[in-house]
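Annex B.
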Amino acid sequence: MTRPPFSAASLADLDLDAAPIRPEWVLEGRPVARCRHWSDSSDGTTSAMVWDCTAGTFRWYFGGDEIVHIIEGEVVVSGDGAPARTLRPGDAALFRAGTWATWHVPHYVRKHAICRDSLPSAITFPLKATRKVFGLARRVRETVAARIGLTAQQTIPLALMLVVGV
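(S)-ureidoglycine aminohydrolase cupin domain-containing protein: predicted structure tokens.
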């Protein structure tokens, strides 16, 4: 079965399901949270969802990176060593994997969240190293191109000839 080339959703119209906050994380009030997962990446490491919550204060643990975009309402977020920040409609924030944040919802908040699972360092280190090598190769190619009066695109055949040994 093939997947469609894209997914789309009307974030304001999604029906949300109960998604209770762990009772031991609640610091104040009785916040009621709901969410709806609407899409995920081809490799399964990233998902998109809409989440909302009523008034209350609670701690939240981010097991993976999460980028949020506030759709409605507001929330005051704070974390270890970070000053409190009020997020309102149109605001976005990144919560890093392995961190805790305190969320204070004065009345109500609705967010769109992009959640990415953290990959083991045995996978991420080679990826980072490969990106650095390719970045260095690109810069060398651009430098050589500039010195011999070619565009970087024109040097690709030359680079391939060097690699293949022609």
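Strands lie at 17-18, 26-28, 33-40, 46-62, 65-73, 75-79, 82-87, 92-95, 99-116. The first strand starts at residue 17 and ends at 18. Further annotation is deferred to the next reporting cycle.
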